[in-house]
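Q: Here's a chain of 82 amino acids. Please give me its 3D structure as tokens.
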Amino acid sequence: MANITIRDLPGNTKEILRVQAARSGVSLESYARHILQRASRLEDFMQPKIVDCAQKFFGPKAGVDLDIPGRSSAREDVEFDA
């Protein structure tokens, strides 16, 4: 088994976790272990998708509707002579 130390955890966070653990009838250590084990199995937790983030802040549901300009190339085609 491995050990982990969490530094700079706000005191109120520890107290909230302690109370939730007590309500569940387990120790704070057991409760924290359970939370970490569940979080380690969540793939979305580790890799947020940019599309999901964009939809959260932009688009009709967020009250922002942007006109996206079409793509075009201002460059001229390059021809190479052999």
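Q: Can you summarize the key feature?
A: The longest helix spans residues 11-24.
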